[in-house]
Amino acid sequence: MANEEVPAVSVIIPMYNTEKYISECLQSLLNQTLENIEVIVVDDCSSDNSLTVAENFIPAFEAKNKALVLAKLSQNSGRPGIPRNFALDLAKGKYIYFCDSDDFLNEDVLENFYKVAEEFNADVVHAEKCFECREIDGEFADQIYLLETTAATEKPTLETCDLSKRISDFVEKKYHDMIWGKFFRREFLIENNIKFPALTITEDFIFSVMCLACAKNYVRVPFVGYHYRKHADSATASPGHSTTISLDLIEGVYFLNNFMQSQKFFVENPQYCYLTIDYFNQMFAGLISKHIFFTLNLDPGEIYDFYRKNVFSLNPSKNIPFTAYLFVSTNIYKMLVNQQAAEIAELKKLLQEK
């Protein structure tokens, strides 16, 4: 690629100990029909030969007039958002695409995204389906997977600009929060200061919310071409440490709250702040609950002690929005229980009168 030529797309890949998979990932990018691309791999201090495998692809990329940029963090971050942010600062492409180092693409994915983005002058292009690549007895098999509850589109479709509708649809899972299923205009991310929070498991969700709230032209597309590999070594397959999950939950709520308080729509419509944080907590508090009930097998007293030590006592200054959420949720629950009790009492009274 000529030095003065602006890449059409910068593909960002955070990498950590994926020696077994990074070759297939990079080969799928080398085979892309869209030629004017740069691929930025940021190694998060892998302890295997991932970086060496990636380095061996440099001549092949140069031969195809594509750029492969390799970088390595000075110390392991343990958080995919940090290497992604590092790569965003290096990226030169008109558009940004995120790919995980153990996944791979069909050869026409970037070209399809690029054409739609140009046609619609899109800030975000959103693919609603992927190939889920599951490992069964050491072999991987693909199946098409719809990532959300909305009906699949048949052609590229410009989404509504009504933020109340977008947010309502998001919490009803009509927009997925996977970062690798989307295509972003780089200037849009810069103009809105959209970057990943330094979290372990919730960074995709928050990045997606920010983009959904800030994008003017948000386009949904029906094509499928990303192969999401599910295997025993993947980060999402690991339950993680309960304290880390708790910290991410608190930090995530704090980050979300700060973002929403900077946006006119959320300031004027606080009910959508609550909806977003409520959805965030429902999704990720479930990880803590699963760990508590199925891994640790705690009794009620131990559960209380766990929450006291691992949630409420951590980062008290950042716990305010989370505490407010719990307070409101608890009171809504009490109201519903009381309402249900009143309705039952009224029904009993009517039956007695008969």
Any overview of this molecule?
The protein is α/β, with parallel strands linked by helices and 354 residues long. The protein has 13 helices and 12 strands. The protein has 2 domains: 9-237, Spore Coat Polysaccharide Biosynthesis Protein SpsA, Chain A (Alpha-Beta Complex), CATH 3.90.550.10; 242-342, no CATH class. Helix content is 48%, strand content 17%. The chain has an 8-stranded mixed β-sheet, with helices on both faces. A 4-stranded mixed β-sheet has the order 5-12-7-8. Helix 6 (163-171) runs parallel beside helix 11 (270-296) and helix 9 (242-261) packs antiparallel against helix 11. The termini are far apart. Residues 236-240 have low confidence and may be disordered.
